[in-house]
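Appendix B. Raw example, untouched.
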Amino acid sequence: MSAEEPLFRIVRGVPTAEELAALVGAIMVRTRPTQAAAPAPVSQWARSARPALARPVAGVGAWRASGLPR
């Protein structure tokens, strides 16, 4: 493929500049290799809002214990 050869061509219709820009953008996003995103770090503030063991425990007094702080 030479440097002067277009990557694609319009064979029907007369697209506007905005339509061509949208097409090029869609092709670029579609053909870009995906990168595995690293998980965002969880702040201490957000972590404090989640109990360590949030699983309900079945048994006698479980209903009452579900509303008590751990």
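End of appendix B.
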